[in-house]
Amino acid sequence: xxxxxxxxxxxxxxxxxxxxxxESFVERSGFLRGQEMLEKFRGVNTPIGGFxxxxxxxxxxxxxxxxxxxxxxxxxxxxxxxxxxxxxxxxIAGAGAIDGVLLELHGAMVAEGIDDAEGHILSAVRNxxxxxxxxxxxxxxxxxxxxxxVEVADVLIGxxxxxxxxxxxxxxxxxxxxVRIQREGIRPTMALHQIPLVWxxxxxxxxxxMSEAIDELHRxxxxxxxxxxxxxxxxxxxxxxxxxxxxxxxxxxxxKLAQACADELGEWIFARRAxxxxxxxxxxxxxxxxxxxxxFPVIFADRCDNTGGGSPGDSxxxxxxxxxxxxxxACILYxxxxxxxxxxxxxxxxxTLELEVGAKASPLQGKPCRMRAEVVSLGDGRFRYDGPxxxxxxGHMGLSAHIRQDGIHVLLVSEREQPFDTAFARTLGLDPxxxxxxxxxxxxxxxxxFEAWAGAIxxxxxxxxxxxxxxxxxxxxxxxxxxxxxxx
Length: 488
Hints:
alpha/beta; 2 domains; eight-stranded mixed β-sheet; six-stranded mixed β-sheet
C-alpha cells in the first residue's frame, strides 16, 4: 500500500493588514519537499506526524509530496497559491501507482480569486488521481467547510480539541480510515450540515458548554454505521460565502444516515446558539475583577490581536493598561516590533533606552507605548515547543528582545506567533510562572501550556484590526444568515 502525503495550510483573514508572501510559507514550515517532511514531522504533534505514526503501525509506504504552511494572514496571492498547488499536483502525478492521498489542510484558506481554497485544492487533486483513489484530509476545528470540499473528498476529519492538542491523533485517524478503505472495503459517504451560526468564544473543549458538544459528537460517532464525525466552529474573520459553523459526518455506504446524523447534531448545536457566546471585558475591567478575586497568577488573553487569527500582534491596549496601573511582576507575551528590537540590539544587553513600543502596523492597533526600558536579554528566536500543542516542533520568533520597565516585562519579537507554552519565554530568561500578571495575545491555544498553573484566566478585547467594535468589520459576501449577526 502506497500513500501520498502532503499539504497546503493557511488560516486566512480577509480583514487583516498583514500580507501573505512566499516568505510567509518558507518562514513557517520551510516549504518542505519529499523526505524533508518525514524528517521534520516524525514524532511531532502535527497531522503529518499522525500520518507517519499510522504508516509505521500499519506498515504502508509513504510517498511525501510537498508541505507549505504560513501563520494566519491575508489572502494568499494567486501566483503563490498556484505555484504551491502545481508543485503538489506534480509530485502526486509523478508518484506512480498509489492507493490513496492524505492531506493536511486548514479549512479556512482564501487565495486571491478563490474563496474556497481547500475545495479548489481537493478538486485539483481529484482530477489528477481519478475517482477511484481515496482522498482523506485533516482539517482544523476552525474551518469554514464548503459543499465542494465534502463532495470531492472521500473523508474529512476535523480536530476535536481546542486548544488543538490532538493534531497527531486526528492525522492518525485519517490514515487509519484510509487503511480501512483499502483493507476492509468500507465505502465512505459524507454529508454536511452548515449551521447558521458564527461560534463565539465558548469553544474551549475542556470546559462546558463546549465539552457537552464534544460529548454529543462522540455519541453520534458511536452509532452503528458511522465512521467519524466532526464539528467545525468556523473561522469568523473571513468574508466569504461559506463562513460559518458546520457539522460533517461520514458513514459506511449510507448517505441518508450521514445526512440525518449531520442534521441532528447541527440542530442540537443551533438550538443552544446563545451558549457559544459570552461578553468580553477590556484588560482594565478584567484587572479590577482579578484584583478583587486575588487568584494569581492571572492571565489576560487578548483574542482580538491574536496572531493566530491573522492580527499584526502589536496592539498596545493591554501594555498601556499595565503601564498605567504600574503593575509589578507582570509580563506581556508578545509584541511584534522589529524596529524596537533593532534599537535594543544596537544598545546592547544592560542598556536603558527610550522606546516607542508597538502599534506600528496600523492606527487601529492603538498608539505606541512610550517606555524607558532596560534591555534584559536578546535572542535569535529559535526554540522547540514543550507541548502538548506542537510538542517537539521547532519554533522561530525571529530576532527578539526581553525588555523591562520597573516590574513590567515585555517580550518583543520579529515573527508573529502566539504563545502556546512558555518555552520561548524561557530562552530570553523570563519564566511566566513567576509573574503575577500575564498578558498575552491568543484566543485559546495558550491554554495548552498555561491553564494548568494559572490562578485565573480572563479573555479580553482591545482595539485592533480584528475588533468588531473598533474596526467595524464589514461583512458583504456571506452566503447565509448567521447568528448573532442576524436575528435567528
